[in-house]
Amino acid sequence: MNSSRHDAPPGRTTPRVASVLWESVRDLARDPRHGRRGNTVLVGAVSILLVLAVFAASVALPRLWYVLRTEHYTAEFDNAGGLRAGDAVLVAGVPSGRVDFLTLEGPHAVVGFRLDRGQSLGEASTATVGLRSILGNRFLAVDPLGAGDLGPERRIGIERTTSPYMIDDVGGAISDLADGLDTDAVSTMIAGLDRVLPQDAEGTGRAVDDVSAALGVLAREDERMSRLVVTTRDVTGVLVSQEASIRALTSQSLVLVTVLTQRREALSALVTSLEELSARVRVLLEEEGDDVDRLLANMRSISQTYERNIEVMDEVLTRMPAGLRSVTDATGNGPWTDVATPTGPIPDSALCALGVIDGCN
Question: What's this model's pTM, rounded to 2 decimal places?
């Protein structure tokens, strides 16, 4: 038998699906169980909203409390020196806030940080980037100085901040100075002095002229020498200001080396003890080998006896329940035991005479 199938036009599929979905939503809303235990759709939606609200509050409340109990400040640095957002801000060595952000404004780095509201900064306050641990972690040290406040911008200017010690700055200044020196003139001067002093007066005069020329070269490089001296002075100042950090770093390094040494000694002692134990066990096995073999044989015999007893107990436990059930059934009427005996050959009159049967006439 032939059957024909007509496919629905594509244009009618979408309205039909939408109609089915709408009917499903209406059936869910008309669910009779809503009258007995509330609208499950509404309860589910409210529960989801409450969970989202609790989650948002748990995330936002700590940040809100941190913002409410602190105040925002900024500081300008020539070089932030590896300082990162989240690093601690110390006042007199006590953690009092943390760094919020770092940004660039022209050639300077601007560090934004927050301090506790009870800590006020005067107009002469200073800021320094210090080294916190041997791993290179940094912190921002703030020193409240002066009266008044920092003004509406709450910013510590570049003149009152100290950038961390950077070896590249000194190396760059020395390289610039070396590039500007006339090394050929200096070499010629030194060679002449070594060759003529103090025997040849005329040669000495020429050498002095060479020295004068070299000094003239140094005079022309006065600006670069000044920059080198200024850089050296800044480096010295940074080293002095961070003396405590360097001492703490040295102390931490000493503690680390001490701990590693103690661990090495402990491991060496453990290895020695293990070697002695293995040697004693080997000697014991060699000397008491026969006794150990007998002991193992006796233990094996005891284990086999236990295994046989276990098999016997299993067999007893397997066969006993049937007999116990029979005895239990027979004694189920209290202190009496039911006994079935054949009474067919004995006449009833004899049983009545013997008193076995009651109610006989």
Answer: 0.36
Degrees (nearest 5) of the Cα angle 213, 216, 222?
Answer: 150
The rounded radius of gyration (Å) of the Cα atoms in the chain is 51
In a domain, 212, yes or no: yes
Using CA atoms, how far apart are residues 147 and 120, in angstroms rounded to an integer?
10
Same domain, 153 and 184: no
Domain co-membership, 108 together with 146: yes
CA distances to 113, 172, 326, 339, 341 from 331, in Å: 93, 111, 9, 10, 16
Q: Each residue of 226-285: pLDDT tens digit? A: 777 778 777 777 777 777 777 777 788 888 888 888 888 888 888 888 888 888 888 887
User: Which ranges constitute the DSSP H helices of 87-221?
Assistant: 167-180, 183-196, 201-220
Q: Using CA atoms, how far apart are residues 48 and 40, in angstroms rounded to an integer? A: 12
Tell which of 129, 164, 199 closes a domain.
164
Give the torsion through C-alpha atoms of 245, 70, 80, 153, to 10 deg: -130
